[in-house]
Design goal:
Helix content: 25-40%
CATH superfamily of the largest domain: Flavodoxin domain
Number of domains: 2
Bound molecules: flavin mononucleotide
Order of helices and strands: EHEHEHEHEHEHHEHEEHEH
Strand content: 15-25%
Number of strands: 10
CATH class of the largest domain: Alpha Beta
Structural class: alpha/beta
Distance between the termini: 21 Å
Largest sheet: 6 strands, parallel
Number of helices: 10
CATH topology of the largest domain: Rossmann fold
């Protein structure tokens, strides 16, 4: 079973590709916390790097999972460049549960946060050409039950950045907010937010405080009404993995 978390679809696309090659099933981490996984002989986790670490939601969800102790367990991280502590911190949570991580690797994909820094994630589509062979390699190593942790080392800088005081400042640089003048109340953001953090009040989207920074709301808003730090969102810079559609990411109630 491959469990995923995904905002702009990169991790979902890779979870699906791995599942196809390994003849496995995929399940959202949100569903997995309610699922019986005890019969699984192989458990995979596929999720992104956010701010040099695993997304907050991933850490919270993995902590809630009831996992089989003897399954072959692997992590595949998606990232724009580097994974830093994205494996280290989840491996620590697994360890606390008595689950040993057998394998991990990373795949570089377009950086969905580039939009927050005035760049276009779609300009990084060249990364797709490179990752096909990496997926083949990862699938083979997992099928062979290799015990190998690529890119799992602890990064002190990533840890410092994610301490409470600093993270609050850093996270603000990628924290989405609704521009209510542009919002038409279509409700797409309320359904695509994996954290159920957005609701409609008087036909306007309103955010609560459970944002995990995945930016699904920003990338999928057809009105470009989700912005970061008050800067207008440019439609050409909105991004999602080309093989993942909005309907694939809609939250199941
Ligand atoms: C808020 C945020 C922070 C990010 N931080 C990093 C980072 O620290 N290092 C990195 O290589 N990529 C970073 N990225 C890029 C993502 O890891 C990458 O685009 C990932 O594939 C997104 O996966 P998803 O579409 O499944 O959510 C960040 C993306 C977001 C949205």
């Amino acid at each position: 079973m491959i469990l995923y978390f995904s905002g702009s679809g990169n991790s979902l696309a890779i979870a699906r590709q791995l599942a196809e090659k390994l003849d496995e099933r995929v399940m959202s981490l949100y569903d997995a916390v309610h699922a019986d996984l005890q019969g699984e002989t192989r458990i995979g986790l596929v999720y992104p790097t956010y701010w040099l670490d695993a997304p907050m939601a991933v850490k919270q969800l993995v902590a809630q999972l009831v996992l089989p102790k003897n399954a072959y367990t692997f992590i595949v991280i998606t990232c724009g460049a580097q994974t830093n502590n994205a494996v280290w911190s989840v491996r620590r949570i697994l360890k606390q549960k008595g689950v040993r991580l057998n394998y991990c690797h990373k795949i570089r994909v377009p950086d969905s946060s580039a939009i927050a820094f005035g760049r276009n994630p779609n300009d990084q589509a060249w990364k797709f050409d490179k990752y096909a062979s990496r997926i083949d390699l990862i699938a083979k190593e997992i099928a062979d039950k290799r015990n190998r942790l690529h890119f799992s080392e602890f990064d002190p800088f990533g840890w410092i950045l994610n301490t409470k005081t600093l993270s609050q400042k850093a996270y603000r640089l990628t924290l989405p907010a609704i521009n209510s003048e542009k919002c038409i109340g279509c409700g797409v953001c309320t359904k695509v937010c994996p954290q159920a953090n957005i609701s409609l009040i008087d036909k306007k989207a309103v955010m609560s405080d459970r944002c995990t920074l995945c930016l699904a709301c920003l990338h999928f808003c057809q009105q470009q009404a989700v912005e970061i730090a008050g800067k207008p969102t440019i439609a050409e810079r909105q991004y999602h993995h080309p093989n993942v559609k909005l309907r694939d990411l809609l939250r199941r109630e």
